[in-house]
Amino acid sequence: MSGRKRHLVVDTLGLVHAVVVHAASVQDRAGAKLVLAKLRGKAPRLQLLWADGGYAGQLVEWVRERCGWALESVKRSDDAVGFQVLPKRWIVERTLGWLGRFRRLSKDYEATTESSEAWITIAMISLMLRRLAPY
Asked: For 41, what's the count of Cα atoms within 13 Å in the CB-facing half-sphere?
């Protein structure tokens, strides 16, 4: 089976701090461990992470024990019908939307996961530069 998943850690502005791309066959919780391990030691002020409801369970304990952070799941209400904007969850979705505007990231053109991660990094650098020095 082909396909890839992207795991991003973004701040409240939507800027990427860590990215991991892996095969779609890897479970989300395992992918979360990969991206959080990449971030460990690089964000000394980080205390709280918000994540999708799929990242609950044993991952919450793992994050607390291994990284020293609190992981809070942002879950959809059981009463909700249809689409609903979830607090804090929209931030990473917005970042994924920004990345989707880059032609190279709109589809999976890359041969390796490393090059896919590199292009995500390049796209975020481009976004940040445009915001710092607009035309």
From this structure: 2
If DSSP codes are grouped into helix, strand and coil, which group holds residue 88? Answer: coil
**Predicted pLDDT at 110:** 86
**Helix axis angle, 113-132 relative to 89-100, nearest 10°?**
100
Distance set, CA 17 to CA 9, 13, 105, 124 (Å): 6, 11, 18, 10
Mean pLDDT of the chain: 88
Contact 64, 71 (CB under 8 A): yes
Q: Domain boundaries in the chain?
A: 4-44+88-132
How far, in Å, CA of 90 to CA of 49, rounded?
Answer: 14
